[in-house]
Amino acid sequence: LFSNLRYFKKQNDFSFVINLKKNHFMKPIIKLSVSVLISVFWMNTSSAQKTQLVKGVKIENPYYSRTKTEKLNLKNKEWKKYLNEDLYAVARENETERAFTGKYNNFEGVGTYYCAACGNALFKSDAKFATTCGWPGFFEPITKTSVIYKEDLSQNMKRVEVRCGRCDAHLGHLFDDGPLPTGIRYCMNSISLEFEGKKIN
Ligand code: FE
Question: Which of 115, 164, 167, 187 is catalytic?
Fold first, then answer.
């Protein structure tokens, strides 16, 4: 680069610009900048999932992990300390977010969906399909144990409730109007999920 600049001063023409474009020295710089940007983006999205804004204060959730698989059997009182109010209402009190309001309803990112309360891997984006109901839909979980099922007789209906296989957070319900290959629709609350895009490399 410096030799190019000296050359530019000496010649006082624009040939250095052409040289600069040809210069292989620039390629590693561009590569490095892109890697740094991706890493920063990654770090931000990862730490955001561990940290929750609880009553306006940033609180680190000690139970959140992308690698640990042991089951969490915690009382709601404990979860209340680490989950923000909206997530707590859905995950621990079985509330449902309003239709068409969730961040993943019309989302088509390629990657993995984790439990927003504990970090357990739940769904791959290739099992997600477009829905018209107002909530994101998946036709299968990552593994058989990613989620657990419970009979739900609330609101004068007989439904199958879907909960996180690790922390027992309420995720949504199961319906039999999904696409092939399973024909099942895992109707999920966006707020119970955290998406992370596939790592580029
Ligand atoms: Fe969980």
Answer: 187
Give pTM, 2 decimals.
Answer: 0.75
Locate 103 and state its tokens: 């961040």
- C-alpha–C-alpha distance, residues 112 and 70, integer Å: 20
* Ligand 1 centroid, distance to 170 Cα (angstroms): 8
The residues that bridge with 196 in the sheet, in sequence order, are 112
187 catalytic residue (yes or no):
yes
Query: What 3-state DSSP class applies to 163?
Result: strand
pLDDT in tens, 85-131: 999 999 999 999 999 999 999 999 999 999 999 999 999 999 999 99
Distance 117 CA to ligand 1 centre (A): 5
Q: How many Cβ atoms are within 10 Å of 51's Cβ, its own excluded?
A: 15
